[in-house]
TrEMBL record:
<comment type="function">
    <text>Magnesium transporter that may mediate the influx of magnesium.</text>
</comment>
<keyword id="KW-0472">Membrane</keyword>
<dbReference type="GO" id="GO:0016020">
    <property type="term" value="C:membrane"/>
</dbReference>
<keyword id="KW-0813">Transport</keyword>
<feature type="region of interest" description="Disordered">
    <location>
        <begin position="180"/>
        <end position="202"/>
    </location>
</feature>
<feature type="transmembrane region" description="Helical">
    <location>
        <begin position="387"/>
        <end position="408"/>
    </location>
</feature>
<keyword id="KW-0812">Transmembrane</keyword>
<feature type="coiled-coil region">
    <location>
        <begin position="252"/>
        <end position="279"/>
    </location>
</feature>
<comment type="similarity">
    <text>Belongs to the CorA metal ion transporter (MIT) (TC 1.A.35.5) family.</text>
</comment>
<keyword id="KW-0175">Coiled coil</keyword>
<protein>
    <recommendedName>
        <fullName>Magnesium transporter</fullName>
    </recommendedName>
</protein>
<feature type="region of interest" description="Disordered">
    <location>
        <begin position="21"/>
        <end position="47"/>
    </location>
</feature>
<keyword id="KW-0460">Magnesium</keyword>
<dbReference type="GO" id="GO:0015095">
    <property type="term" value="F:magnesium ion transmembrane transporter activity"/>
</dbReference>
<keyword id="KW-0406">Ion transport</keyword>
<dbReference type="InterPro" id="IPR039204">
    <property type="entry name" value="MRS2-like"/>
</dbReference>
<dbReference type="Pfam" id="PF22099">
    <property type="entry name" value="MRS2-like"/>
</dbReference>
Amino acid sequence: SLSLSLPPSLPPAAATRFALPSPSLAAGCPPEDSVPPPPPVRDPRGGGRCERLAVPVAEMAREGAVVPAAAPADGPKKKATSSRSWILMDAAGEETILDVDKYAIMHRVQIHARDLRILDPLLSYPSTILGRERAIVLNLEHIKAIITAEEVLLRDPLDEHVIPIVEELRRRLPAMHVAHQTQGEGRENLSGQHDGEAAEEDESPFEFRALEVALEGICSYLDARTTELETAAYPALDELTSKISSRNLDRVRKLKSAMTRLTARVQKVRDELEQLLDDDDDMADLYLSRKLAGASSPVGGSGVPNWLSSPPTIGSKISRASRASAATIHGNENDVEELEMLIEAYFMQIDGTLNKLSTLREYIDDTEDYINIQLDNHRNQLIQLELFLSSGTVCVSLFSLVAGIFGMNIPYSWNDNHGYIYKWVVIAGGVSSTFLFMFIIAYARHKGLVGS
C-alpha cells in the first residue's frame, strides 16, 4: 500500500483540492512538461480546446498530492481501413485523384450509404449493376465504380487489376470527346434537313461508354483467367490419364478447385447481366442522360440539380453529341434497345466463357470416370489374382491333409512290407491337386468370373 504524508505547511483542504484532477486532465490533454507544446487542437471528445494545466504535475507530486496515473493507451491500433482513393474522369478525359471519405462521395453523386457499401473492398458482395436516379453503381469483381451522366469514379485506381480499366478510359474518353466536338461543329454548318440524320449518328451517352469499358474489362479479365486455366488443366489431365500418381492427383485437385471458384465468379456476372436484360425497367434506370435531359428541359438550365455544380466546370464539358443523343431518346422513355444491344453483346461473351468452363468441367468429369474405370480394372485384376491364390491354397491344403493323415503315429498294415506306397501316395496326391486347381480355373472362366 502507498502511504503519503502531507506537508505541515499544507492544509488538508488544499491537499484535497490539488488531488482532484482538473477537467482538462480528464479530457485527455497531455502534461505540459512531457512533450513540446503543439498548436492548440480541438478535443474530439469534449468539442473544446485542450487547455494546459495551471499546476504542473511534478509540482503536485513534490507537494504530496495524489497524482492520477496516465491513461493507458487505447490498445493496439485498429486494423487499417480500406483505401479511400478514387479517380475521377470526366467526358473530356481529364483525371482527378480523390482521397475522400464515403460521405463526400455520397454527397457528390447523390447515392445512399447502402449503395456505397456495395463498393467496399472489405465486404463481400456479389456482382451488381444498380441504376439510381443520378448514378450507376457498378460492382463487377475488382471493378468498383460509380458512373454518372458526366463523370466516372473508379475505386483503387492503383490496383493491378484496375489499371487496365483506367488506361482504357484514358484512351477512349478523350477520343470520343474530340469526335463529338468535331461532329457538333460540322452539324452547325449543315442545313436543317440533315439535322435529324446527324443526331441519329451520334454516339452513345457517356454513361454507356463508361459502362461498356467496365463490361469489356471484366469479360476480358474472366476470359483470360479461363484461358490460363485451360492451358494448365488439359495437359495435367492428359498426364493423369497416362500415369496415376499422387503428384498428378494433387495437381488436378488444385486445378479443379480453381475452376470451381472461377466458375462461380463467371456465373455471378452472367446472372447479373441476364437479370438486367430480363427487366426493361432496370435498363431504363441506366439512361442517366435521358433522365438528366428530362429534368432540365422543362425549365431550361435552371432545373439542373445543385449537385451537378459540385465538380468544377463539369457542366461545361458535356459534349453536344451527348446532349443531342439524350434529347433524341427522351421522346420514348421505354426504348432500351441501345442498352439492350450493348449488354447482350457482353452477355454472349461471358456466356461463352462459362461454356468454356463447362466444357472443362465435363473433361474433368470424363477424366475422373476414365480413372475410376482404370481403378476398377486394377481391382478386378487383384480379385482374379486372389481367386487363383485361394484356389491353389485349397488344392495344396488337400494334399497336405493326405500327407498329414499318413504322417500320424497310428499303427496300420499298409506300411508293412509296402515300401513303394509312399511314392504312389505323393504322386497321386500331387496329380489330384493339380487337376482340381485346373478344374476350378476352367469353371471360373466358363462362368466369366475371370478374364480369358
